[in-house]
Amino acid sequence: MSEEIKHRIIKVLSNQLNEKTESFSLSDNEPLFEYGLGVDSVSTLEMIVALENEFNIDIDESDINADVLYSISTLEDYIKNHL
């Protein structure tokens, strides 16, 4: 299930960042914001809404922080805990 979650996160991120999934190559622990992916506050909100829709979860506003949004791995851990 973990690989499926990770794949779905990458799909959402690549769609939100207008990248092709095949060319979207971040390691699981690579920082999303420091990598220069063009993620700003609007992109962050769109990404959160897309993740909520993809996984049918509600991401609490208080959970939107650098610890959760740091990398694919941190997003995966958060989503696994909320499914």
Q: Please identify which CATH superfamily we are dealing with.
A: ACP-like
Share of residues in helices: 40-55%
What structural category do the secondary elements indicate? mainly alpha
Q: Helix-strand pattern, N to C?
A: HHHH
Regions with little confidence, pLDDT below 50 for 5+ residues = none
Percent in strands: under 5%
Level-1 CATH class name: Mainly Alpha
DSSP strand tally:
0
What's the total helix number? 4
In the CATH hierarchy, the architecture is Orthogonal Bundle
Shape: globular
Number of domains: 1
CATH topology: Non-ribosomal Peptide Synthetase Peptidyl Carrier Protein, Chain A
Largest sheet geometry:
none
Instruction: Round the Cα radius of gyration to an integer and report it.
Output: 12 Å
Mean pLDDT over the full residue set: 83
- In angstroms, what separates the terminal alpha carbons? 11 Å
Description:
This protein is an all-alpha fold. The chain has one domain (2-82): Orthogonal Bundle (Non-ribosomal Peptide Synthetase Peptidyl Carrier Protein, Chain A). It has helices at residues 2-16, 41-55, 66-69, 72-82. The chain is globular. 12% of the residues are buried.
In short:
The protein is 54% helix and 0% strand. The chain is mostly helical and 83 residues long.
Name the descriptors.
83 residues; mainly alpha; Non-ribosomal Peptide Synthetase Peptidyl Carrier Protein, Chain A
Furnish the topology, listing elements before pairings.
Blueprint: H1 2-16, H2 41-55, H3 66-69, H4 72-82
Helix pairs in contact: 1-2, 1-4
